[in-house]
Design brief:
The chain has 3 domains: 219 residues, DHBP synthase; 109 residues, Rossmann fold (3-Layer(aba) Sandwich); 166 residues, Rossmann fold (3-Layer(aba) Sandwich). It contains 20 helices and 21 strands. The strands form 3 sheets. It has an 11-stranded mixed sheet with strand order 1-8-2-3-7-4-6-5-9-10-11, with helices on both faces. β10, α7 and β11 form a beta-alpha-beta unit. α9 runs parallel beside α10, α11 crosses α20 and α12 packs across α15. The mean pLDDT is 90.
Length: 564
């Protein structure tokens, strides 16, 4: 393990930052490894003229040695020393450098084979980022630099990403601003008067065609197809599975109606995450859903993509990520290419692929205020063959002695909220939260209490739902007084609330809990009113009569949903 030095460098203009860049440049010259920001993604740099430095780069990333590196230069005039240039090279450089374009040309003998993966060509780029450009210029040598991530992981677009991946593996990290573009550079091979697009990026196919003419630009099939067989990759990212989170990624392609139905069918699966457009984000569970930008904003999709893919690793239990397939136009082609690589080119058409024909598993969210008659509705669900989980019982289970939730509460509110036998002192915890005289502190404590308990309760609920689905149940119901407060409403297919007039509720609360009329009334006032439930729920059942009447209405509703 190396002792990685982390230096903050945002513009490179101040004397202190100039000194940091000078130290980083000296590290490069002496054979060390430095992570630095670029406009595309962060790069992991070493002296491109030093064969041993290249080997260190491969080792730090865990990268296959046949995957060539890109060398970065500080000025167009540098190129001739390291590759055999052509008039077409200078035409492209004049149009797109400095910027996110990498060109592959025959290499000079000064570039070690370890940099090029044994090829007689070298990939060259002139970055626009001022920190990257200053580091190369001060180093006085070209810098070989792949993306600064562990091999196979999503590329890093922030200093936090590279610190997480490479701290202890490199000598120095220059922690700058987040990358502007968000996907790696475009890579092209020059072939006479033509160019072959090997990896799409910030310089698009359309940009190249605008300069050279469509007849002189060809997109290699490797951009949109899975590689089979053995071959020598000419460009980074061509041969191996890249950019993937820990979970499997599956691209969804097909009609909008089929994709929407597929997403909704899986919204209650706790092992599934979703990467979708911003416009459909609110239709899916927020705890397991990320958006990559608006449908018609491929630049934002590129900027957000790798951060989203990394974020799935921080979401518990996600095993599969279903991702939207972006348009293959402009920088959208780069977004598609990276997602396809992350998915190993696994693409699913929900309308036709047999694997997609998974029946919808409806989850009913049942809620309502105290005394409304929710328990009667829950019993009616069970009588109709719909398994129903009482989250009040779940809350007691997750707060049992020795449970993670119990320990988290003790850590947050003090060990004295536990009895000597490890059981939770519920009254003591309530006094500590609700007895707080300062309104702001009380709100903060309540938010902490809810964050801890809701997380553990919902994980238990998701486990239970997965078990019901695996058992072949046609649907399931979750009885949750705090359905909306916990955020679980977003994971439900149907939302049903039970309510009743105030007089009935007061009478039921008094009979059940032995409270005075004033106490029962105060409890009702502290909860959501009927207007709230009417606004947020699909169905609102009024329960002012006999239990049998509510039970019949619940079963009628199940029939209307096709569940009875």
């Amino acid at each position: 393990m190396l002792q990685t030095e982390i230096l903050s460098v945002t513009t490179g203009a101040s004397p202190a930052e100039q000194a940091s860049l000078s130290r980083a440049a000296a590290c490069i010259r002496s054979g060390g490894l430095v992570v630095f920001p670029t406009e595309t993604v962060y790069g992991l740099g070493g002296n491109a003229l030093d064969a041993d430095a290249a080997k260190k780069i491969y080792a730090a990333k865990g990268r296959p040695s046949d995957n060539p590196l890109i060398i970065h230069i500080a000025d167009v005039d540098w190129a001739e020393a390291y590759c055999c240039t052509t008039p077409l090279f200078y035409r492209l450089a004049c149009a797109f450098w400095p910027g996110p374009l990498t060109m592959i040309l025959p290499k000079r003998d000064c570039i070690p084979d370890s940099v090029t993966g044994g090829l007689d060509t070298v990939a060259v780029r002139l970055p626009a980022d001022p920190i990257a450009n200053a580091l190369i210029r001060m180093s006085g040598v070209p810098i070989a630099a792949p993306s600064a991530n562990l091999s196979g992981h999503p590329s890093p677009t922030s200093s936090e990403h590279v610190i997480n991946d490479l701290s202890g593996r490199v000598d120095m990290i220059l922690a700058g601003q987040p990358s502007e573009i968000g996907v790696e550079s475009t890579v092209i091979q020059l072939a006479g008067e033509d160019v072959i697009l090997l990896r799409p990026g910030g310089i698009t196919y359309e940009d190249l065609c605008s300069l050279l003419g469509e007849e002189h630009v060809r997109v290699d099939r490797i951009v949109t197809e899975k590689v089979t067989g053995e071959f020598k990759p000419l460009s980074p990212g061509m041969k191996y599975r890249h950019y993937a989170p820990n979970a499997s990624v599956v691209l969804l392609h097909g009609s909008e109606e089929a994709i929407h139905a597929f997403l909704q069918a899986h919204r209650c699966d706790p092992d599934v995450g979703f990467l979708v457009y911003e416009e459909e984000y609110e239709t899916l569970p927020p705890a397991r859903t990320l958006h990559m930008g608006k449908r018609n904003d491929p630049a934002m999709q590129a900027h957000r993509l790798f951060s989203c893919l990394r974020a799935f690793d921080d979401i518990p239990r996600i095993k599969t990520v279903y991702a939207r397939t972006p348009a293959k136009e402009g920088i959208g082609l780069a977004v598609y290419n990276r997602l396809a690589k992350a998915a190993g080119f696994t693409v699913l058409d929900p309308a036709s692929d047999a694997a997609a024909q998974i029946p919808v598993f409806p989850v009913i969210g049942l809620t309502g205020g105290s005394g409304a008659g929710k328990s009667v509705a829950a019993d009616a669900m069970r009588e109709a063959g719909i398994p129903t989980l009482d989250t009040d019982l779940v809350s007691r289970t997750v707060c049992a002695p020795g449970q993670p939730c119990t320990q988290a509460l003790a850590d947050a509110f003090g060990a004295d909220i536990l009895h000597a036998d490890g059981t939770l002192d519920r009254a003591g915890l309530a006094a500590r939260v609700f007895g707080e005289p300062d309104a702001d502190k009380k709100a903060e404590k309540l938010a902490t209490l809810n964050r801890i308990t809701h997380h553990h309760i919902l994980e238990s609920v998701r486990d239970w739902l997965a078990a019901q689905r695996a058992a072949g149940c046609r649907a399931a119901c979750v009885d949750a007084p705090q359905l909306f407060e916990s955020g679980f409403d977003a994971e439900c297919t149907h939302l049903l609330a039970v309510t009743a007039d105030r007089a009935h509720r007061i009478a039921r609360i008094r009979a059940r809990d032995g409270l005075s009329p004033e106490q029962a009334s105060a409890r009702i006032d502290a909860q959501h009113d009927d207007a709230y439930f009417a606004q947020h729920c699909e169905i609102l059942l009024q329960n002012d009569g006999a239990p049998e009447e509510l039970s019949a209405r619940v079963k009628e509703q199940l029939c209307s949903w096709g569940l009875l």
